[in-house]
Give the backbone structure.
Amino acid sequence: MDKAKIMTGEELNRTYLRFAHQFLEYYNDPSRLAIIGMQTRGVYIGKRILAEIKKEFNIEVDFGILDVTFYRDDFRSKLKMPDVKVTEIPFDLYDRDVVLVDDVLYTGRTVRSAMDALMDYGRPRRIKFCCMVDRGHRELPIAPDYTGLYVPTYENEEVRVKVKELDDEDAVYLVNVPEEDSDE
Amino acid sequence: MSDYQFNQKHLLGLADYSKEDILYVLEQARYFREILDRPVPKVPTLRDKTIVNLFYENSTRTRLSFELAQKRMGADVVNFSASSSSTKKGESLKDTIRNISSMKIDMVVVRHESPGVPHFLTTCVDAAIVNAGDGAHEHPTQALLDMFTMQQLHPDLKGKKIAIIGDISHSRVVRSNIIGLKKLGAEVTLCGPKSLMPVFIEDMGVKVSYNLDETLAWCDIAMALRIQLERQGHGTELFPSLREYHERFGIKMSHLEKYPDFHIMHPGPINRGVEMESEVADSDRAVILDQVTNGVAVRMAILYLLSGGTRI
């Protein structure tokens, strides 16, 4: 199934560090910054970036978790069995600089849903989007602000980001998927 | 949960739901509960769905709860109450539902005084049917919200001791609760006057007690049921008086002091001073208002899970 390992754990760690620097370069008031990880793997990626920011700059940044299942426009056609996960945003989003974090950017529909969801929580000043891998095939006019790696893929390929907490390893794989199994 | 698939199209009663189905619904409901606490407690999940609430029998509380759940998820809602409709002009249930169905609806929430009406509707229309109470048969969403509330007190209900106290005969809540709780492995004891206890109820796998003190000493959760005077013909035919009922089977503050462990539930509306003393209903041992909030979350979960089908 695995076609190629396109990022190693070491490369992922370097990318987390780069994201940490990039996030703080842009925002002149870090206390306004909030990182929101998207379920499921975006949460772990977000937490790693958060840890890097703390280590490098000794700054505490608010962190939230977002599940967009309720906002998806394709949940009936795509999800075989709907499974809702936790959403937890324990701070006020009003006037914050929010960075949404996800593992893979594909059609852009998940990010669109996430923006809808965030707006229901309050009115952030800005929303930026950070993804570990951009695999192309956009169906909506959405572009990431921070990208770990851009990997042009075929439709029958998928990108799997692995995190230690769930998958026992840190790595990114490019895999071949038979058409009917594709669920991303 | 690996091989498990939620394959239900309707919610007619908990008898049709497996233990896994029930646990899955309750698990999903946890996340819907969280939506209710959000600054904007509304999600667009059902915005392309039309739901009709078909209430042949009055129930303000259940209807409000369903309606709120539907609106929180952005569904279009039509309300139908029998008192102001063509049933008064002699239209049959089947014709009513087929007419409504022709208006392109996706789900029907039905409450009717006759047991079996929700089953019957599944043969008339393609929409998903949710039973909101049929006669003295089942009231599955109430039982699900009760179990959800119990889970907040005791995450695993296996082996937990649940007492259901009061008017067992006239209650549909009790039937759904027994079915659901048995599937989750809880022990159930029914307690109430003999005249309000159906014969052969033990066949459902429950114990029966006529002694309130014994029952309260035993249980982890005591659920009092409303005395349904309106179903007894002329007031209190089945027991001497409300006062005597309260004396024998009402939960009192003295019970709370004597047995410090059990929590109190009630499906509402409460007759204060009958099923329990007013102070008991307001005490911190009662989770009656949690049941109401949880009701909206559980109903949202059910509507969400059953809306997965294709549009008719």
